[in-house]
Amino acid sequence: MQQEKIPTIIIVGAGIGGLSLYHALIKNKDKKVFNVKIYERESSPTDRWQGYHIALSNYGTKSLLNCVPSSIASNLPKAMPNSISDVETHGITVTDQIGNVLLAPPTKSFKDVYEIAKISRGLSSIITYRNRLRDVLLEGVPVQWNKKCIKYVETQEGVWVFFEDGSQEFCNILVGADGINSPIRKQKLPELQIVNYGITHVSADVSVPKHLMDKVNKIHGNVLIRKTLGTEGDSTLMMTRLIPIKQEQNDEKNEPHYTATLVYSYPSELDNVDVESDKVKVDDNDPESVIEHVKRLIRTLRPDCELTDLLVELWDLAPKTIPNEPINFPLKTYNPVQRRMMRDIDPMSI
């Protein structure tokens, strides 16, 4: 009797999604065995910046734990540290532009990622260091680096995958986990449209000194997701962990610092409005000009108050140049501050 050939799955993209799928397939090989290969366009794990803080819900953490083996699960606290009792609360507050609380939904408390995954009702979330999560998920995965997929060809036997370096690989199932600009998605669904929502985001990872974080906590409390809504269509978002980080830069005060992701969102049409005081042209290749643009918009669209001053002060912490050695940046990750359009797929286009 001829032995059944083990089917091959190729995953293109070694981000959080691709790596989670890889682990899930390997973990469940007792149900179905696959020969799984994973390819990544980056040249190494440290080749490119890996994203801002993210919030994983109780349902998301449960799904993640179901995907990964125990060896990976035991290391997840490296990416999503245990909650510090009486210091930080995993939740969200939404305030108006002067700091009045509009929304503060109740959430269930938990001590770690394993406990939040057991919460079956309601919505809770844990702030996660995205770059560290990717590092944890990379453990034990034989990623083939510097392999950018450019196209595929389907045959009766399976799929041929072609890479930019001229090589090609055969598989039975091809999975595109390579982001919104995926060439696999563009080839498979060429009619699928990407739409702009008319909203521009500017995001930055910053290192916040304690005296500023104390001001933030005074307005929002010790919750880890803080959102403010303006009356002109703009909003701010701050995600943080109240866990001091090591400062590699000189700090004469030896003051504790905390990681935070800042996001400023505003109607994209405001980029086309001439502002009399705007004497500096906004250049997305020049982080300083983008940061100054954000500060001007906040000053222009928000009232003169303590919260407005605080938001401007926080944005002033964002790196205004591209570090020569990003690895030495306090957060260990760095992406130049740029304007980005909020985009998504239009499911009605197919």
UniProtKB/TrEMBL annotation:
Organism in which the protein naturally occurs: Rhizophagus irregularis
Transmembrane segments: 6-25
Protein name: FAD-binding domain-containing protein
Keywords (A to Z) from UniProt: FAD, Flavoprotein, Membrane, Monooxygenase, Oxidoreductase, Transmembrane, Transmembrane helix
Keyword RNA-binding: no
Single annotated GO MF: monooxygenase activity
Keyword Transmembrane helix: yes
